[in-house]
Write a structure and sequence with these properties.
21% strand, globular, FAD/NAD(P)-binding domain, single chain, five-stranded parallel beta sheet, alpha/beta, four-stranded parallel beta sheet, 25 strands, disordered C terminus
């Protein structure tokens, strides 16, 4: 009797496996370019319901909002430390193997150093030499990059070694800053302000050195309300940071010379927190020619063997043009763009918006084109801006829309909670967030002026 029951159970399990394999074989194929916040979230939402493949250069997910603290050996509610081992451990907590983030049911296609990615009009993605991925739905979620070590630039081969290499890269940034007597942080956006605060705390622990923050805008954080700029400026000055706003600078050796008043600022170490650009150079095409960003500006490029390149519309700074209501790439069926590579206003370049856009696109794909389901889902509605800005390990400010809801130690606590929450991909449901009140006032003039560039 027991043997018969065991045989029946084994047969049932085998039949279930065959049904699962048949469902997966008949499921739509979704290729996601990029495994950051947005790409990983869509893959997690679609796994088991689609044949999902993530195309990524790294083998790990990185919690990028935590890198300014990690560059100074600190973390929310954790002061900067002079011990490299402890600082490296804090940096490693921001890195999670991609296979662990995505789980079973999601394939990862690695792009090695020197390999090209080509998207064709025949609904295929070509990776390197000879690897072709066919898709029914394509999601572009390649994010953006900075010209400094605040985002990953290493490309080793082994997964464990790659995570270690990224941690060492952050350690090198930290050690380089430690060697400087005068540090210049260029850029007064969120990244620049957070990094300047963290470096000032670290310089104080080391017993000397100055931090200078240069910003060409009229005030720091000029895409946020003015009182937030004032609060951040006071926090920086109280930590000994020298803040310069309102003009651009020419660099000559270790000196920065103001274009307007010719003031001279010495800096033997520089942290560039400006010049963020989307990772979309591989999508720039001109006729049948693939070109890099410089060749694109010069009107030149090298002819590619394929004449069937997919023409993805990009704005003037390289972001993918999308329909605001669907997140679908304009003029293309079954192609979407989410996260920092998508065309949107500067104050939406946040991890929270990448998460919500990804969740919405996943829900839209699962509607399978059913008009009734799409009507119930509705167009994408912009959730309110929820933003936590660190001003050192134990200080900060939290915005809901245009209102400050938390400051100082309470803001640092929430920042630590946000890091814990998002690095584990715990739910931050779009269905709830889109119904919260926006608490917004009239946008700052700087945002209005930037709008034509963004669209």
């Amino acid at each position: 009797m027991a043997l018969a029951l065991a045989l029946v159970a084994a047969a049932a399990a085998a039949a279930a496996r065959r049904r699962g394999e048949n469902r997966r074989a008949s499921a739509k194929r979704t290729v996601i370019l990029g495994g950051g916040f947005a790409g990983s979230q869509i893959a997690r939402d679609l796994r088991g319901k689609r044949r999902v493949t993530v195309v990524e250069t790294k083998s790990y997910f990185e919690f990028v909002p935590g890198t300014p603290s990690a560059a100074a050996g600190a973390a929310p509610l954790r002061a900067a430390t002079r011990f490299n081992l402890r600082a490296n451990l804090r940096a490693r907590r921001l890195l999670v193997p991609l296979t662990k983030v995505l789980g079973r049911g999601v394939a990862v296609e690695r792009v090695r150093a020197g390999e090209a990615v080509r998207v064709t009009s025949e609904k295929t993605v070509r990776v390197g030499e000879g690897r072709t991925l066919e898709y029914d739905e394509l999601v572009v979620a390649v994010g953006s990059e900075y010209p400094s070590g605040l985002k990953a630039s290493c490309d080793p081969n082994e997964e464990d070694a790659e995570i270690g290499a990224r941690a060492r890269e952050m350690a090198r940034v930290r050690e380089t800053m430690d060697e400087g007597k005068s540090i210049v942080v260029v850029g007064g956006g969120v990244v620049g302000v957070e990094l300047a605060c963290e470096l000032a705390e670290r310089q104080k622990k080391r017993g000397g050195g100055t931090v200078n923050l240069l910003h060409s805008g009229p005030r720091l954080l000029d895409t946020l309300p003015e009182f937030v700029s004032e609060y951040a400026s006071k926090a920086l000055v109280s930590r000994g940071v020298r803040v310069y706003v309102g003009q651009t600078y020419d660099r000559e050796g270790d000196s920065f010379i103001g274009v307007m008043n010719k003031n001279v600022i010495q800096g033997d170490r520089v942290a560039w927190c400006v010049g963020s650009k989307p990772n979309t150079d591989f999508l720039r095409v001109k006729g049948s020619r693939f070109v890099d960003s410089q060749d694109y500006e010069d009107g030149e490029g090298s002819v590619d063997e394929d004449d069937d390149a997919l023409h993805v519309p990009l704005d003037i700074i390289g972001r993918v043009r999308v329909d605001d209501g669907t997140r679908q790439v304009i003029g293309l069926d079954d192609v979407y763009a989410v996260g920092d590579c998508a065309c949107k206003l500067p104050d939406q370049m946040l991890a929270s918006y990448a998460h919500w856009e990804a969740e919405y696109v996943a829900k839209r794909l699962l509607c399978e084109g059913d008009e009734n389901k799409l009507r119930r889902l509705g167009p994408y509605r912009l959730p309110p801006r929820l933003m936590a800005i660190s001003l050192g390990p134990f200080d900060g400010v939290v915005l809901w829309g245009d209102r400050v809801v938390l400051r100082r130690w309470f803001a640092a606590c929430l920042k630590a909670l946000v890091q814990f929450w998002f690095i584990r991909f715990l739910p931050a449901p779009y269905a709830v967030a889109k119904r919260l009140p926006s608490l917004r006032t009239k946008p700052p003039a700087s945002l209005i002026l930037r709008r034509p560039l963004a669209n």
